[in-house]
Prior knowledge:
Residues 2-66 form the Tf2-1-like SH3-like domain. It is built from two helices and ten strands; from the N terminus they run E-E-E-E-E-E-E-E-E-E-H-H.
Amino acid sequence: MGDFVFLKVLPWKGVTRFGKKGKLSPRYIGPFEILERIGEVEYRLALPPSLSHVHNVFHVFLLRKYMANPSHILSLEPMQVHEDLSYYEQPVEILDYKEQIQRTKTIPLVKVLWRNHRVNEATWELEETMTQEYPHLFKATM
């Protein structure tokens, strides 16, 4: 007990589950903590209040063991969401520089790491635009 498992969501044709319908709906939800083993093949799970209408004892064929992985945990700073449900993207640092060469001109680009995003989600932006809008990023690198 104390292990975590995913709970299989049974497919019902034409039913929308968790905001998705058909093939795009999740196959498993969770992870949920195992509270106790009931019999040979049944387990009681700690379900959240949103699933309080569901009986909390499940057969093993509906469960899949959750393997804890630190890369699954995202540590993001809290966002300030505006009334219109938008938020302001803030650049954190310049990761790389490159020049995109076209037929008649060369365009300088910078790779920008944004707050609340991982390094692999960094984007290439025009150096001129970033220098005008966020000069503090370039003072630190010079």
